[in-house]
Amino acid sequence: MRKSKFSEYQIVKILKSVEGERAIVDVRREHGVSSATFYKWKSKYGGMKTSGIQRMKDLEAENRKRKQMFADLSLENIMLKDVIEKKL
């Protein structure tokens, strides 16, 4: 996946600047962001604070770790089933 040139904190700052009196078009043009990207950011980070970003990163890391644990256990289970079948 391509890494964004903006960090999550910068994205939240850009979205907060639109909540003021500034027009969306001006903010997008200033930062060089397309309308599709802006609205994708708004759906993902809209209404989020910096503490929310850290929490989201922590949850994503925990989710990644749990998926890896599940994959390891599934592989181990399949290997054990193969061993049992070969003995019988």
Automatic annotation (TrEMBL):
Q: Where is the signal peptide?
A: none
Q: Which domain of life is it from?
A: Bacteria
Query: What Pfam families has UniProt attached to this entry?
Result: HTH_Tnp_1
Q: Which PANTHER family match?
A: LOW CALCIUM RESPONSE LOCUS PROTEIN S
Query: Which protein, by its recorded name, is this?
Result: Transposase
